[in-house]
Specification:
alpha/beta; five-stranded parallel sheet; three-stranded antiparallel sheet; 8 strands; 47% helix
């Protein structure tokens, strides 16, 4: 595989998506938002009126659908067979679809291959939780972006307040800590840095500082990218 692959793993609320979008635009690479993959397939299952218990049909559908992620000024546009599904895949109903299909081993295998198929020229930036450990262990650059649970809770509370939603800091912090424990201690693909990952802590850094630091590491390891 000749395409350059940059993976960015880490828990939610650390700025992975923003960093990946910035790197994608800077290098002109393709983008993979792995967290959206199961939601996209779940939506496709619903649109094609396939039985959510039909593993074979869902697996076949997983192999045939076209998925694209396009970084732009408003974030990321997600396309399913050229249809913009950016907003609908974030609904609770589609999240429920995703959880139903995630239990099937053949579906998981098909989606793993679907993710690996994103690694084409000129290169790929992959955003997720096991990109550097499971999906792209051969990636040339692997980042693990982290931040304290307290800082991530502050960011989440601020996001809610900006939307006019009242949030409880203690409750948000508790939920983040519980999710971290589950993710880091699960038996399959736990949330851990790859052995050769570059660790970045965004707790006290702005997104511009995180981006500059990431660029510094990339230029050191892959000077031809500039």
């Amino acid at each position: 595989m000749t395409a350059t692959i940059i993976t960015v793993d880490g828990p939610s609320g650390v700025g992975k998506g923003t960093l990946c979008q910035a790197l994608t635009k800077h290098f002109g690479f393709h983008l993979l938002d792995s967290g959206a993959i199961y939601r996209i397939l779940g939506l496709a299952v619903s649109q094609n009126q396939i039985d959510f218990n039909d593993e074979a049909a869902i697996t076949q559908l997983a192999k045939s659908i076209q998925i694209h992620f396009i970084a732009n000024e408003n974030g990321v546009t997600t396309l399913l067979n050229q249809q913009d599904v950016s907003n609908i895949i974030r609904t609770q109903q589609v999240a429920d679809y995703a959880s139903k299909i995630a239990v099937f081993p053949d579906v998981r295998a098909a989606l793993l291959q679907k993710q690996r198929d994103f690694a084409v020229e000129p290169g790929l930036v992959a955003d997720g939780r096991d990109m550097g450990t499971v999906v792209f262990p051969q990636a040339q650059i692997k980042f693990f972006l982290d931040a304290t649970a307290e800082e991530r809770a502050k960011r989440r509370l601020k996001q809610l307040q900006e939307k006019g939603i009242n949030g409880n800091f203690a409750q948000i912090l508790s939920e983040i800590q519980e999710r971290d424990y589950r993710d880091r201690n699960r038996a399959v693909a736990p949330l851990v840095p790859a052995d050769d990952a570059i660790l970045l802590d965004s707790s006290s850094l702005s997104i511009n500082e995180v981006f500059s630091l990431a660029l510094h590491h990339i230029r050191q390891r892959l000077p031809h990218l500039g």
